[in-house]
């Protein structure tokens, strides 16, 4: 049973490292200051997830009791204010929108993976760890969608376009 859990956690660890690297590599390419700031924060949050999962793997491998240390909810996202993105070229906004969409899909995949792992976990502590990870990734996903939608509206405004919905 522990081998199965460790296998799932090792897969999760690889995925979290990939997410961290994605944000690290993309943050400097972002032309929109808000997006760059979000990616910097997400890189740090994914790093915290990596450390959390590594600790879980170590505890389970040693046969220790699993102690769940909660990662605080990111106050950065709650306090973030919308900034005007004036002076940013339309092509740059479109590039940032594309990367934001990719980031959203990455976080959605993470959230779905952890939710499914939680649903399949028989151990209550492991289930709780996966549920926490799913919640954190869902928060990331929702924030990315919000930033994407704000930037899209800015782009539409720059283009003199207003959708019917």
UniProtKB/TrEMBL annotation:
It comes from the Bacteria. Gene3D superfamilies: 1.20.1260.10. It comes from Kosmotoga arenicorallina S304. PANTHER family: HYPOTHETICAL MEMBRANE PROTEIN, CONSERVED, RUBRERYTHRIN SUBFAMILY. GO terms for molecular function: metal ion binding; oxidoreductase activity. This is Rubrerythrin diiron-binding domain-containing protein. Residues 8-145 form the Rubrerythrin diiron-binding domain.
């Amino acid at each position: 049973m522990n081998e199965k859990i460790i296998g799932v956690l090792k897969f999760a660890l690889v995925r979290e490292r990939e997410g961290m690297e994605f944000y690290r590599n993309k943050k400097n390419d972002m032309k929109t200051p808000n997006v760059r700031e979000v990616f910097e924060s997400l890189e740090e949050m994914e790093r915290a997830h990596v450390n959390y999962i590594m600790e879980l793997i170590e505890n389970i491998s040693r046969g220790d009791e699993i102690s769940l240390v909660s990662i605080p909810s990111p106050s950065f996202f709650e306090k973030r204010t919308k900034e005007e993105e004036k002076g940013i070229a339309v092509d740059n906004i479109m590039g940032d929108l594309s990367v934001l969409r990719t980031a959203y899909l990455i976080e959605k995949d993470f959230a779905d993976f952890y939710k499914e792992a939680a649903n399949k976990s028989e151990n209550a502590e492991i289930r709780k760890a996966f549920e926490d990870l799913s919640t954190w990734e869902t928060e990331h996903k929702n924030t990315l969608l919000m930033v994407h939608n704000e930037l899209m509206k800015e782009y539409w405004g720059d283009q003199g376009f207003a959708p019917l919905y």
